[in-house]
Design goal:
With 362 residues, the chain is of the alpha+beta class. It has two domains: 3-191, Endonuclease, Chain A (2-Layer Sandwich), CATH 3.30.870; 211-356, Endonuclease Chain A (Endonuclease, Chain A, 2-Layer Sandwich), CATH 3.30.870.10. 32% of the residues lie in helices and 24% in strands. The protein contains eleven helices and 16 strands. The strands form two sheets. It has a nine-stranded mixed beta sheet, with helices on both faces. A hairpin with a 3-residue loop joins strand 7 and strand 8. Helix 1 (61-72) packs parallel to helix 2, helix 2 packs parallel to helix 3 and helix 7 runs parallel beside helix 8 (250-261).
């Protein structure tokens, strides 16, 4: 069964969907008591305003609903954040800690020089929330939250004002005990101080994913996600569409060019600030027949997304770079479902149109 519910006033940019290839867990929303993992998809794009100013902001449903989930949590909340400066989220985490929820966090140290980040993480520590900082040169680049070991929030969305009110981003809310268990295991390793190559891969999880479909989850660097990304591109028969904040991965670029040469339609949008940066494959892709555009957001187009044959979506914190594969702590979801692919296709259409008709920036 496929269950699709558009949610009220934000029907254009949020959905609840029970996957047609579900993992075996209970779902209370399927009226026939079918099993499946519930996935809700969010985008910031429809609520962005330029120029950004606090008095003009429309709160995206992703922020409202994440804060609501934190407010309803009863047992545990685990936050892995590359960057964190949303006061309303931190207030909700502190309130959860005060009512007895076990709240913990892992945060990269990259942004501690930002007064807002330092103040808010300091507030969490003052309220006895254990915060572990990753001080390595590689990034702890994850952006995920695990609530009560059943709900996971993940995607490209940093938990910041910039990513919420300025940048194009996506977020997934996944209700699945099995997926939550995978993210919990990743969190526990990092909270224990094991980052990068010090982490262990869950080989059983990867083997099970290969046979089940649905949502496949990979963590960098231990799971070596790149071969799974390349496999999806190599299996493309009709189209590959991408949105990329940073794109320097030669293997992924080569796979897209190979797809073009065998007749697959390949097109995409890349963040304009990175289009011609060191190692960018923008010019290579364009020279080899890929229809690629610079984005039109005056701030940042922050997606890291591939849409394949209108059936598969790849998204997460994982930029298309060697660092994402080899050194950073990242997570990546491969979602096998046409409904969710269609939703990401709608977002791509908005991003593409904005690239062709960019905002005039002040």
């Amino acid at each position: 069964m496929v269950l699709l519910a558009l949610l009220g006033l934000y029907a254009t940019y949020a959905l609840i969907h029970t996957l047609s290839h579900p993992l075996p867990i209970e779902t209370s929303q399927a009226s026939d008591n079918a099993t499946g993992q519930q996935v809700q998809v969010f985008f910031t794009t429809p609520t962005l305003r330029y120029p950004d100013a606090p008095n003009r902001r429309a709160t995206p449903p992703m922020l409202r609903d994440l804060v609501s989930d934190v407010s309803r949590a009863r047992v545990s909340i685990k936050v892995a954040a590359f960057d964190l400066d949303l006061p309303q989220l931190v207030d909700a985490l502190i309130a959860a800690q005060q009512r007895g929820v076990n709240v913990r966090a892992v945060v990269d140290s990259e942004h501690l020089s930002d007064p807002a980040v330092a103040m808010l993480t300091g507030r969490m520590q003052n309220w006895q929330i254990p915060v572990v900082f990753d001080h390595r040169a590689p990034f702890m680049h994850n952006k995920f939250v695990v609530l009560d070991d059943i709900i996971v929030w993940t995607g490209s969305w940093n938990l910041t004002e910039n990513c919420t009110f300025r940048n194009n981003n996506n977020a997934l809310r996944i209700k699945s005990r099995r997926i939550a268990a995978a993210y919990r295991q990743e969190f526990e390793q990092m909270h224990a101080g094991r980052f990068g190559t010090a982490k262990r891969s869950d080989t059983l999880r990867i083997e099970e994913q290969a046979s089940e479909g649905g949502i496949d989850i990979y963590f960098s660097p231990q799971d070596q996600a790149l071969p799974f990304v390349l496999k999806q591109i190599e299996q493309a028969r009709k189209s590959v569409i991408f949105m990329a904040f940073s794109f320097t991965s030669a293997p992924i670029a080569d796979a897209l060019i190979d797809a073009t040469e065998r007749g697959v339609h390949v097109e995409g949008v890349i963040e304009k600030r990175n289009a011609f940066g060191t190692g960018s494959v923008f010019a290579q892709l364009r020279a080899n027949g890929v229809d690629i555009q610079e984005d039109g957001n005056c701030y940042i187009m922050h997606h890291k997304v591939l849409i394949i044959d209108n059936e598969v979506v790849i998204t997460g914190s994982y930029n298309f770079t060697n660092n994402a594969e080899d050194t950073n702590d990242e997570n990546l979801a491969i979602i096998h479902d046409p409904m969710i692919a269609r939703f990401f296709q709608h977002e791509y259409t908005r991003i593409r149109q904005h690239a062709l008709e960019p905002t005039r920036c002040n």
